[in-house]
Amino acid sequence: xxxxxxxxxxxxxxxxxxxxxxxxxxxxxxxxxxxxxxxxxxxxxxxxxxxxxxxxxxxxxxxxxxxxxxxxxxxxxxxxxxxxxxxxxxxxxxxxxxxxxxxxxxxxxxxxxxxxxxxxxxxxxxxxxxxxxxxxxxxxxxxxxxxxxxxxxxxxxxxxxxxxxxxxxxxxxxxxxxxxxxxxxxxxxxxxxxxxxxxxxxxxxxxxxxxxxxxxxxxxxxxxxxxxxxxxxxxxxxxxxxxxxxxxxxxxxxxxxxxxxxxxxxxxxxxxxxxxxxxxxxxxxxxxxxxxxxxxxxxxxxxxxxxxxxxxxxxxxxxxxxxxxxxxxxxxxxxxxxxxxxxxxxxxxxxxxxxxxxxxxxxxxxxxxxxxxxxxxxxxxxxxxxxxxxxxxxxxxxxxxxxxxxxxxxxxxxxxxxxxxxxxxxxxxxxxxxxxxxxxxxxxxxxxxxxxxxxxxxxxxxxxxxxxxxxxxxxxxxxxxxxxxxxxxxxxxxxxxxxxxxxxxxxxxxxxxxxxxxxxxxxxxxxxxxxxxxxxxxxxxxxxxxxxxxxxxxxxxxxxxxxxxxxxxxxxxxxxxxxxxxxxxxxxxxxxxxxxxxxxxxxxxxxxxxxxxxx
Length: 615
Known about the structure:
five-stranded antiparallel beta sheet
């Protein structure tokens, strides 16, 4: 009998679906033997045609690899989009765009032809790439190549070296590129030092990379210039968007139209056998296989890209994002108030004006269409006095979305609506994106925790309608909801076993895991109850009890801290149990009150769940 592997061992050997897909591509396309290794640069002809490696990098920094993904090869034309992006940032868009066009040429990559203005058609063909390198050379002189190498290294997330043999081979056989260089000089696109520019260009093309490197580089393009492995902002989002635009129209040379029609992912190929594809906001793909088709593109690499796009429906123009999915919950404080336990006067005011505070919880990408939908949804119901937008589930905010948000906030300000943003840390990039457009608005407040934002909004409504929140007010046992219904004699006997405790701001009153040996009735001030992980369960003010779970638990399950100077009646549990035995009617009443308080909390929790599952 053959022993069956355990589920545990099978689990540890299992592969993620994307890795299994890449394995399938590797196994299936390895049988493809058409094409030829580039030989116009003699050193490139030495590449082993059997090499085949694939890598895919996600935007959270995970890198999948199969096959010969660590075999080095020269970057060649794969360098072009990255050097173009570098030039845009280093020299300014105006200078670069005035010298190099952005139109597809329809010609092979090494065509010796300029556009009607005697400028290169785009930076993806050799003429445009040499011009781009020339602009950097004009600015940096002898340091130009090192500037380029360092930039390529930052895109890859590691230090990249040069294949000196390939560099030498390219230099000796690069007459066609020299012809392009002198054509550019004749038309004043580059400076007089054509030899110096071409030396940098030949070295640039001879930088060594792997399929893994170019997958990470592609993912950096897909991630608005942030390397997902190192988290470094390599170039600006402006440079990335312009680079991806040119890659879309011209990255695959005279196959570019067919490529974008059938595959629909911005890409770039190189005669060294590499292809990279960058799907914005999704992933970066890199492949290496030296045999090329008639257009100079890796045969197997194209098949991998075709398979990925087709299998997962990744054509960038076939997006199915629905702006309506941006709203995960939409409610007022009548349906889901804050966790603060309020006195009757406050509850009455909030119940009468529950629609004065509108809360909209958002999820996913805060894009232009998402913000437009949210603003129309907000306007579809009566105008609130305070609108709370919770963004803690928002994964990213586009500049367009942030700007439209700010314009919506301006309109709300004109209508006397206060805006509260929650869920965004001030040290985050999302905060910077939002504040670019909202910093000058006077009607915007922010809190990191949603519950804190709702509590603040509730306080404003209480104040506006004549209520008061006096944290310094002192209350007696007779005002405690847990003791509701007890007679004067019973309250007097209870008071005789109480000790008044005083706590300074920030003092820890109850600790998780400690014995539950006392009850507390808050006399003045405010405290908050939190779980050990910091999640706040409730804020309590004078007249509320805490530690009451000692009646049914033996150890503490939450922490309690003083929000400000506070006093409380402390009742040792053993004394309280003796009181209950002496006053059985009071004991029954207290337990009924406790059951009602717990039921009220459960109702609030269930209401929140219903809101999140029904929106």
